[in-house]
Structure formats: structure tokens, C-alpha cells
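Annotated sample (chain length 102).
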Amino acid sequence: MLNGTEPHSEFIGVYLEEHWHNIDWQEDMLHTIVVAAYYKPAQGKRLYKRHKIVEHIPFSAVQLNLENLLIEGLSMLKSWSPPTVTAEDPDALLQGWKRTLA
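Output written by the structure step:
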């Protein structure tokens, strides 16, 4: 988590492509790197944006390129302005945000 102060949170996640509990371990398993931002408006459900930086890459490629991947993820997060909730755009959909289920 990069920023976790309410009402705004930002994450860069490195995920194993398959659920670790359901697969046989192998060297250099495939991973995905995702950035996400969440925003809790004063009223209503949280808003979020997500973007996959890379997917289906071996862990060795993550290790070799980690600095550049993190820089790219941080750059993406910084490019997202916080949502502005208005009567015309109450869910900030026009700004690229989506509503969470909870």
C-alpha cells in the first residue's frame, strides 16, 4: 500500500497468476502486477480504478525489471486525479472510476 489514508488508498500488487493453494509449485511461475486506487466519498459506496501493468510474466522477469515496473505503476497512480463527485457524475464514471460492490 502506497497511501492508506482515508478516504483514499493506493496499491501496487504483485500477484501469482494461479491460486497458490491449487497449483504445484514450479520455478519462475507467472505473475501479474496491478495498480489500484480506492476512494470513499462522503456518501455511497467506494470508488476504484485498476490497471494491469504487466501480466503473464515469469517471476524472474519481475525481479529483473522490478524498479521499472514499480516506476511505471507509480506513474500510473499519480496520473489519476481523485474523483470529483457531482450531481452530473455522482459515481465519477465519466472520470474513469467504478463503484465497488460493498
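Annotation: Helices lie at 59-79.
Annotation: Residues 59-79 form the longest helix (21 residues).
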